[in-house]
Write a structure and sequence with these properties.
Layout (H helix, E strand, L loop, with lengths): L1 E7 L2 E8 L2 E4 L5 H6 L12 E4 L4 E2 L8 E5 L3 H6 L9 E4 L5 E2 L5 E3 L6 E2 L2 E7 L15 E8 L2 E2 H9 L5 H4 L5 E9 L10 E6 L2 E7 L7 H9 L9 E3 L14 E6 L3 E9 L2
Parallel strand pairs: 6-17, 8-14, 9-19
Antiparallel strand pairs: 1-2, 1-5, 1-14, 2-3, 3-4, 6-7, 10-13, 11-12, 11-17, 12-14, 15-16, 15-18, 18-19
């Protein structure tokens, strides 16, 4: 099942996506649906159907935590001349930089190179701490796409000073997420999903999720060893090789098999 947040005319609602249509279940936050364990029964609330082409996409979730993995694909570490990690590397993105599908990425002036990064993101389904790697599935509500937009020139500069990545990763609009959540029952975490990023229709990143250095069970287990996660929190699992810069006027498409396409134009901050 694919679940998203939309606006049709003046009405805001959560909707179930089927092909090119979306069925409204009312204005129920997705976090509330997740926390109350109503995902598998929510379809019974559909009151009407509208065309996807007629709706506006809204912010999918309002997470407390957005935890991201750095260098979780060996090829990406190598292309950036970074050391391949032997343990997961985590950093945070600010939740205030989330934007939905079809909203523009706004690049501030004079910040140098900016790169998009396509990533598979997990959506936490219930409060969890000290989760065993053998028991992660009950804690995953679903999956979505996260574009980890990065001010690369600033990241390199901060890295040389041994500063964290937070500034380069958390500028306004630097976290497109969407277009919706695909529920966990539709995706086998052991299956390698095709993952691709295109800039103006040209493929820049192409890989499969089974190329990750650290799999989903280890990711959740190591994070929750010290940090409590809550329903609606997001874990982004890293990006493959092929990072390329974007500029105002570009269109970035992030696609992951069985989820969909997250599309965002690029503009400058006037």
């Amino acid at each position: 099942m694919k679940i998203g947040r939309f606006r049709y005319k003046n009405t805001v609602f959560t909707g179930i996506v089927r092909d090119d249509m979306v069925g409204s279940v009312g204005d129920i936050p997705i976090e509330e649906i997740i926390e109350s364990n109503r995902i598998l029964t929510i379809e019974s609330l559909i009151s009407r159907w509208v065309s996807l082409k007629d709706v506006e996409y809204l912010q999918l979730l309002r997470p407390i935590n957005i935890i991201c993995l750095g260098l979780n694909y060996r090829s990406h570490a190598i292309e950036g001349n970074w050391q391949v990690p032997d343990e997961p590397i985590y950093f945070e993105k600010a939740s205030s930089c989330i934007i939905p599908n079809k909203s523009p990425i706004i690049i501030p002036k004079n910040i140098g190179r900016v790169d998009p990064e396509v990533e598979l993101a997990l959506i936490i389904g219930k409060t969890c701490r000290k989760v065993s790697s053998s028991n992660v599935m009950p804690y995953i509500a679903g999956y979505t796409i996260l574009n980890d937009v990065t001010a690369r020139s600033i990241q390199r500069s901060d890295q040389e000073k041994k500063y964290p990545w937070f500034r380069s990763k958390s500028m306004d609009t630097f976290c497109p997420i969407g277009p919706w959540m695909t529920t966990s029952d539709e995706i086998d975490i052991n299956e390698g999903l095709k993952i691709e990023l295109r800039i103006n229709g040209v493929v820049k990143q192409a890989s499969k999720t089974d190329s990750m250095l650290f799999g989903i069970p280890k990711i959740i287990a190591t994070i929750t060893k010290y940090l409590t996660l809550y329903p609606g929190d997001i874990i982004s699992t890293g990006t493959p090789e092929g990072i390329s810069p974007i500029n105002p006027g570009d269109v970035v498409e992030c696609e992951i098999e069985k989820i969909g396409i997250l599309s965002n134009s690029v503009i400058t901050d006037d």
